Amino acid sequence: MRLSRYFLPVLRDVPKEAEIVSHRLMLRAGMLKQEAAGLYAWLPLGYRVLRKIQAIIEQEQDRAGAHEMLMPTIQSADLWRESGRYDAYGKEMLRITDRHERDMLYGPTNEEMITDIFRAHVRSYKDLPLNLYHIQWKFRDEIRPRFGTMRSREFLMKDAYSFDLDLGRAREAYNRMFVSYLRTFYRMGLTAIPMRAETGPIGGDLSHEFIVLADTGESGVFCHADLLDKPIPTHDVDYLSDLQPIVDDWTSLYAATEDMIDMAEFESTVPEDKRIAARGIEVGQVFYFGTKYSDPLGATVTDDEGKEVAVHMGSYGIGLTRVAPAIIEANHDDDGIIWPVSVAPFEVALINLKPGDKDCNTANEGLYQSLTNAGIEVLYDDRDLGAGAKFATADLIGLPYQLIAGPRGLKNNEVEIKHRRTGERETVSTDAAVARLLALIEPERRDKI
Fold first, then answer.
1. Which contacts of 420-424 are long-range, i.e. CB under 8 A and separated by 24 or more positions?
2. Domains: count for the chain
3. Which of 21, 31, 108, 271 gets the most CB atoms within 10 Å of its CB?
4. Which residue segment(s) compose the domain that 379 sits in?
5. Domain co-membership, 295 together with 416
6. Contacts of 438 (CB under 8 A, 6+ apart)
7. What is the pTM of this model?
């Protein structure tokens, strides 16, 4: 992509309404535009990040045996009355009436609708286990939307729903999603710690929130420090095998949100030098809630004895529009964002230091084509601006690597590679630049774990 033809409305000044780093940087880097309180337009750069996040989630959900579908944003109030949640949910639910005076709502979550889909089509235990998911916009009328897309009213969410014959099999489904989430966030460059959590309006008695530690986090969290360095399950994990030992290994070390903290247990089981009491950002949550929805909505199957039984269910959410700012909170410096390669909008910023120079233009055009042909996502800064402005833009938007080509270096057939995270610079020959960048980028794509 040529920057001269790209829509990238970067801001020089820090927006007054932005309270935290990620919100400031997302606005300054031209990722977002606020349209109303808690409502944001995702501009091209931001939308590329969102799509990268979505792709990783889809890959790991599919790998864990979940099947993708798509449900509507508008739901019938009748389903929610069946489950008993229509009146109980509170003012966060946006209730609307259509032209026929039917009560509708903008879905804040989809337990009722997915249960209705299940009960319409599944009759036998032989069709289980089943896990269905979608990635769809949700709306919750937050009393105080804040922190940009970290707590917005409209948000993009992956929600999956498992259906199983009994508690034991439902727990296996829970474990698959638990391990899937460990891998998903790792691939995004995040250290997300599973913590005991309240189930809230979703219901049930088993839940974990996946928390990224950050000073700007909304939740108080308490955990064992060793969880920060725990190895992530990789390609040798078979999601159809027994994953309980992996889950037990992670949950054996204390980790809980402020709603679930047992201070006496925390202090007695975690050595003093290993205790972390901090703030955190929730990026995902998993729930098991048994027959909470299948009982009232009549989602049953016949078991192997021909008896009608209510299925056991779980739900599993990831807020995509929360993940993006969480990544920034964990990856930035004074100059701007520092994207991990796996979710970066582009992998390389190609900077032409003198676009008016014929030889410099020719060399940069050649590098641009070579990078593109090699499968590297490149944003080519071909604008007629000074070097300082180009460096500032590249640092602000946080692409992992910068390839810098100017007349002085090109006379010696040399270009410079800047590592955005460390600031390290290395000089390589023009002919070797693409191969060197591939060697740097490929391991960081994290698509082969």
1. 420/338, 420/339, 420/394, 420/395, 421/331, 421/338
2. 2
3. 31
4. 337-444
5. no
6. 374, 376
7. 0.95
